[in-house]
Write a structure and sequence with these properties.
about 325 residues, alpha/beta, Peroxisomal Thiolase, Chain A, domain 1, 5-stranded mixed beta sheet, 11 helices, about 30% helix, about 25% strand
């Protein structure tokens, strides 16, 4: 049976770093307030107005191809998970493909907020498993700084800019994407969304004046839903695949809030030593968090390791993927 294996991973974050101390000078907040509530110490913010989400995706895909030793022309399909596309259309995936020279690939954008990368991986895996394609690239990329109100301390301290990418290839070994459980509930849109910019509230003088093109989040409600649903779906995929806590090598959780990640690990019964964490350096990069984690921890991963990828995002969207790692990352 053909399975989709992750055979390479890469990431990119802008050079410019904004620390909590920097934010103290901009808004009414403190390093202690941000750290205790989120676990974030700094985030990377793109300060070049000519750069867009596709530029971060390009960097990640170029590194991905270099690491795997393939030409971009070998890519069959490129999926970009993002809520900050370069523009409404064309798809950022197509722009990335053009910029890297993936001229034989087709692609599309996938919008599922912070769960976008998981949705993309599960979708891309199907194309591999059917035997239709040999090389599928999944990009998770968001330039959240472009839709943040830096006068709103409830949201601007949380997010950062970044991109990650993985390559999926077929394998007949007992590795790869083993299972996934995905959910969505559109009723959650009330609590986490961007009010304007779509067909409901097209851009106008009024929408700009009323600051409707920024992230709107009702923090407490989102937090409660995230804690419960991320923890439950992670435990559920373990039970479904008869995995015990000792069988799990790593929890690869969406980096939105350290307390949410800790609650998920606790529900799964795994210790802190098995939890990938880089929220303190990147903040919440939305669709970029999980591939950036894999990029950061790649050298610690061993062939056969059981990984649980878990996320919760606006919309609401949430889910988990069970991955058996396909290669030794330190080689």
């Amino acid at each position: 049976m053909i399975k989709a294996a992750i055979t390479a991973v890469a990431g990119y974050v802008p050079d410019n770093i904004v620390t909590n101390k920097d934010l103290e000078k901009m808004i009414d907040t403190t390093d202690e307030w941000i750290t205790t509530r989120t676990g974030i110490k700094e985030r990377h913010i793109e300060n070049d107005p000519k750069k867009a989400t596709s530029d971060m995706g390009v960097k990640a895909v170029q590194l991905l191809c270099k690491k795997r030793g393939i030409s971009p022309e070998e890519i069959d399909l490129l999926i970009c998970a993002t809520v900050t596309p370069d523009m409404v259309f064309p798809a950022t995936a197509n722009i990335i493909a053009a910029k890297v020279g993936a001229n034989k690939a087709w692609g599309f954008d996938l919008s599922a907020a912070c769960s976008g990368f998981l949705y993309g991986v599960s979708t891309g895996a199907q194309f591999i498993e059917t035997g239709r394609y040999k090389k599928v690239v999944i990009v998770g990329a968001d330039m959240m700084s472009r839709i943040l109100n830096f006068e709103d301390r409830a949201t601007c301290v949380i997010f950062g800019d970044g991109a990650g990418a993985i390559l999926l290839e077929p394998t007949t070994e007992d590795v790869g994407i083993k299972d996934f459980v995905l959910h969505s509930d559109g009723n959650g849109a009330t609590y986490l969304h961007m009010k304007a910019g779509g067909s409901l509230n097209p851009a106008s003088i009024d929408t700009v004046t009323n600051k409707m093109h920024y992230v709107h989040q009702e923090g407490q409600t989102v937090f409660k839903h995230a804690v419960y649903n991320m923890a439950e779906v992670s435990a559920n995929i373990m039970e479904k695949n008869h995995l015990k806590a000792e069988d799990v090598s790593w929890l690869v959780a969406h980096q939105a809030n350290k307390r949410i990640i800790d609650a998920t690990a606790s529900r799964m019964g795994v210790g802190a030593e098995k939890v990938m964490m880089n929220i303190e350096r990147y903040g919440n990069t939305t669709a970029g968090t999980i591939p950036l984690l894999l990029w950061d921890y790649e050298k610690q991963l061993k062939k056969g390791d059981n990984l649980i990828l878990s996320a919760f995002g606006g919309g609401f969207t949430w889910g988990a993927i069970y991955v058996k790692w396909a290669y030794d990352g330190n080689k």
